[in-house]
Amino acid sequence: MLATTVIEVDVHLQPLGHRYRQACTQLQARPRKVIGKTILVHLHIVVVDELVHVGCAQIGLDDTPVLRLEVAQTRAKLEVLHNGYPIYSTYVAPGPYAIDDLSVGASHGELEVILTEADGQVRRFIQPYSSLSNLLREGVWRYSATVGRYNGAEDLERPLFWEGTLARGGAWDSTLYGGVLASDYYRAGALGIARDFAGLGALSFDITQARTDLGSLTGQVQGHSFAARYGKSFQTGTNLRFAGYRYSTEGYRDFDEAVRERNQSAHYLGNRRSRLEASVYQNFGKSSVSLTLSQEDYWSSAAQRRQYQVQYNTRLGDLSINLFASQALADSVGENRLFGLSLSLPLDFGHRHNTSFDVQRYNGRYSERASVNGGLMDNRVGYQVSVSNDQQNNTSGALSMAYHGTNANYGAGYTQGADYRSVSLNASGALLAHGSGIVLGPYMSETSALVHVPDVAGITLQHAPSSQANSQGYLLAPSLRPYRLNSLVLDTDDLSPEIIIDNATQQVVPRRGAIVKASFPSRQVLRMVLTLQLADGRPLPFGTQITDAQGHALTVVGQAGQALVASDVPGPQQLRAQWVDQATRECQVTLTPGDIPNVNGYRVQTLVCHPHPELSSLETNMNHQEHSS
Description:
Layout: E1 4-13, E2 26-29, E3 41-44, E4 71-72, E5 76-82, E6 85-92, E7 95-96, E8 108-116, E9 122-130, E10 141-149, E11 160-170, E12 174-183, E13 186-196, E14 202-213, E15 220-233, E16 238-248, H1 255-262, E17 272-284, E18 287-298, E19 304-316, E20 319-330, E21 334-346, E22 353-362, E23 365-376, E24 381-389, E25 395-404, E26 409-416, E27 420-434, E28 437-441, E29 448-452, E30 460-461, E31 464-468, E32 474-477, E33 486-491, E34 499-500, E35 505-508, E36 515-519, E37 523-524, E38 526-533, E39 545-547, E40 553-556, E41 562-567, E42 573-581, E43 583-591, E44 598-599, E45 602-608, E46 610-611, H2 613-628
Parallel strand pairs: 1-27, 29-36, 38-45
Antiparallel strand pairs: 2-3, 4-7, 5-6, 5-8, 8-9, 10-11, 11-12, 12-13, 13-14, 14-15, 15-16, 16-17, 17-18, 18-19, 19-20, 20-21, 21-22, 22-23, 23-24, 24-25, 25-26, 26-27, 27-28, 29-32, 30-31, 30-33, 33-35, 34-37, 38-41, 39-40, 39-42, 42-43, 43-46, 44-45
């Protein structure tokens, strides 16, 4: 086989899940095997299964799914489809990975993960998920309206549709919610209620009615779908993230099923009859275990699909151990079983470096990988070098680099095997339009904050050092926790001495999917290190009080007559010095702060403190009177 070279470019703007000047459509440039300079750009609408949430405000958001249970053999492209819709694309380094920043909306659905290795090998697996509807406080309304066009992963028709949702928090810790969706040949409406039972957990129930015109083959069908979900966190550390069951009558179709059946999609298994899902997480100090299971069956066929996933993480000293296993059972493809072990150990030299070894058994075949990875330049630059042996006993090597910039993230990778070479480039970032302009950032999460430190460019947050303020002082703070206190702490270590921020910490409590604005008032001053001397060259006494012309205290004199003074007036001004030496002594200094040389942010100068004219005149008159008497 001849060696081939593939160059793939992946550039995308990450979805913005917010309500602060939010656009409902998401623009993503998501090329598929781009050769040369061809880049495909399309508008992308996220449509959520069952409760028909589309676009902006979604009332069923809860636990974000985390993708963990696969091991990439090379630097691989990872794509995530939600109920057939592409919603996420990135590159992952060889080895285990975790994707925890997906915004998939409410209710339940399926995440189809497509892993394309550098040698062209493609692997797919299904990650079902479910969540409870959000509970709202009494009297709080939430609503959304969206117009969009179906844009699935397959080459099917793209019908236009519109959607609306409405939810209101009611008495007894309950929330009533509903939604409608309409297209040329599809109508659906949903109504549900959720309630928090305090120590007993949270429970939701909803019903969806849908009418579908399937064309000349079947005609019109209609049906109902019923769903119940439960979630609770226990004091023992057990977190029942969700437990849900949905039953649909034979005539029911969700929107994705309607489009695929009407277009006779080859991947369409039929309309679902029932689905059972559960996810449990347990923490044991340094260890944790998670279990996910799902099962669904279909009308008009005996097809059934079951999936089980389990993962165990622990630490023995510095050694991190990750055990994982999954089994997918489907009538159409048989059984797929995966077992894996990952070991990671830090290397004790220089900056943060780690070595890891992974072994995986997939349907009876083994693969191994060894790698070294680390970070440079305060972890803004990351690297990984790996050697792997895949399930067909093919050996390959890979090198990947990543750079976390202030406005975007960039990555590059090179992989070479026995009969192939692969070069990949990727970049991602976020753009937010607000009332005062535009701000860029490396990424945007579902719940975020817009931070404003007026006219302080370059400042960062302690929990998000990769985001830097632009020239207007705006920056993005992603990864906030909804409905909880979030501390926003400015990193003032490298702040110019001539900028004063009285309070560098704020706490915000955002709603899920919101972008909150946090302002930190600041002011520009001129900081001066003044060495103050008397007319005879002696320094002013220790503890001398320095005030401005209005009598406001500014500072006190330290050792050797030095005083640290801050002024927001660059023009000429006078400072008054006062101390007690058998009697009250006073003198004044005349200076122009803007003309004093700046040395590392401080204006340094030696000045003479002259006697106050009025006091000098008074002392002269008193001496004259004493001499006359």
